[in-house]
């Protein structure tokens, strides 16, 4: 991937009637990158997208696109393509004219419009539907028309504002794959806004996790590192699912922390805490081993006895909700031919490795 910075936000702050949208936000999006803004409602991700698009101007700070400062530049003068959650198609125009709209406003020659629109429609696999109106299309087809309209102008940046939110689960998953393929094919710098963690993990080169308390960025990393090495309890809980244990720090030795409850966790780089400090330990459901044979205790530093309270069958796996130490633990067990489902009410032993445990000072 080209490491040239395509979109830059430096110390950007935006408020609405004294309500903070984003505060002192710094972001760098590389050319050709699929970059996601991920977070709950009110964290500032849509505000950030609107600042990049030019629908809003920052109160402080600068926005730069393709090396050019965007202060005072209106949206129609920024070479960006946008796909909204609602798609915003023109109901009175057919597919061809919806896709051609941006080119006509740019006064592109008619022959070139025909060529570029045909290419865009082919790219999103809608050839043959050029004369249909939006109401004659499925939700997935409408989404692809909106995408074709955005890419046909050959934008410097493609902005996607939760474009899959209105689709059903199966179609949304199919469109995720198609968007990934399309991004690889076209190489357009793409900024994707979503509150769906699985969507962001599946599609992104990097993810900026945002929170409403921080009024902006809390961690920026690759999907793998965000999942395996969350920088805070908020990120651990928001990216995927975690079981959390609150305890007190007893000791730190050889890169591992030990709690008063006898649990161990690998210390992240730069971990600093005094003995007696309150800490939270986080472990992913798929990292926890569960067994009903309490006599065959594994050689693992982290072990807890509990009772299976609820079983959730998910096809390729079963999730167990286990009550242990007055807390609920979520355990994900992938199926194989030799495993039987552990019934509700069964006493079980949970165990997991310290290297699979994140620790945070409270």
Describe the structure.
It is a single chain. The chain has 8 helices and 20 strands. By secondary structure, the protein is of the alpha+beta class. A 6-stranded mixed beta sheet has the order 6-7-8-3-9-10, with helices on both faces. Helix 2 packs across helix 3. It starts with a strand and ends with a strand. 23% of the residues lie in helices and 36% in strands.
Task: For the structure shown, list the relevant keywords.
362 residues; alpha+beta; six-stranded mixed beta sheet; five-stranded antiparallel beta sheet; 8 helices; 23% helix
Strand content: 35-45%
Estimated structural class: alpha+beta
Net shape: globular
Point out poorly predicted stretches: none
How far the N terminus sits from the C terminus, by CA atoms, comes to 38 Å
Biggest β-sheet: count, sense, barrel?
6 strands, mixed
Q: Give the total of beta strands.
A: 20
Radius of gyration: 24 Å
Quick rundown:
The chain is α+β, with helices and mostly antiparallel strands and 362 residues long.
Topology:
Elements: E1 5-16, E2 19-30, E3 34-38, H1 45-53, E4 60-65, E5 68-69, E6 80-83, H2 95-105, H3 110-123, H4 139-151, E7 157-161, H5 169-186, E8 189-194, H6 197-203, E9 206-211, E10 216-221, H7 223-228, H8 233-238, E11 243-253, E12 256-259, E13 264-266, E14 278-283, E15 289-291, E16 302-313, E17 317-324, E18 327-334, E19 347-352, E20 357-361
Parallel strand pairs: 3-8, 3-9, 6-7, 7-8
Antiparallel strand pairs: 1-2, 1-4, 4-5, 9-10, 11-12, 11-14, 12-13, 14-20, 15-19, 16-17, 16-19, 17-18
């Amino acid at each position: 991937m080209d490491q040239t910075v395509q979109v830059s936000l430096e110390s950007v702050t935006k408020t609405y009637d004294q309500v903070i949208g984003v505060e002192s936000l710094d972001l760098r999006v590389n050319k050709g990158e699929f970059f996601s803004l991920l977070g709950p409602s009110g964290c500032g991700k849509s505000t950030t997208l609107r600042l990049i698009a030019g629908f809003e101007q920052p109160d402080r700070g600068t926005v730069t696109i393709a090396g050019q400062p965007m202060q005072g530049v209106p949206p129609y003068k920024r070479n960006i393509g946008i796909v909204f959650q609602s798609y915003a198609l023109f109901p009175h125009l057919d597919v061809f004219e919806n896709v051609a709209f941006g080119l006509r406003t740019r006064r592109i020659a008619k022959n070139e419009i025909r060529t570029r629109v045909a290419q865009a429609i082919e790219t999103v696999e809608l050839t043959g539907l050029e004369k249909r109106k939006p109401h004659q299309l499925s939700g997935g087809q409408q989404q692809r028309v909106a995408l074709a309209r955005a890419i046909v102008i050959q934008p410097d940046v493609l902005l996607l504002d939760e474009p899959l939110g209105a689709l059903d689960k199966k179609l949304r998953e199919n469109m995720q794959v198609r968007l990934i393929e399309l991004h690889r094919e076209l190489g357009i710098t793409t900024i994707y806004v979503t509150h769906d963690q699985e969507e962001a993990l599946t599609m992104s080169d990097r993810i900026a996790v945002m929170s409403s308390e921080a009024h902006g960025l809390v961690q920026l990393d690759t999907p793998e590192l965000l999942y395996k090495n969350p920088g805070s309890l908020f990120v651990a809980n928001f990216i995927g699912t975690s079981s959390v244990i609150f305890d007190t720090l007893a000791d730190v030795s050889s890169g591992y922390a030990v709690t008063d409850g006898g649990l161990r966790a690998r210390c992240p780089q730069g971990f600093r805490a005094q003995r007696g400090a309150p800490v939270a330990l986080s472990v992913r459901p798929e990292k926890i081993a569960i067994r009903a044979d309490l006599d065959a205790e594994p050689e693992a530093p982290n072990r807890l006895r509990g009772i299976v309270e609820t079983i959730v069958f998910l096809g390729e796996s079963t999730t167990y909700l286990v009550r242990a130490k007055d807390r609920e633990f979520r355990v994900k067990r992938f199926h194989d031919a030799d495993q039987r489902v552990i019934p509700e009410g069964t006493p079980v032993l949970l165990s997991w490795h310290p290297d699979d445990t994140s620790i945070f000072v409270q």
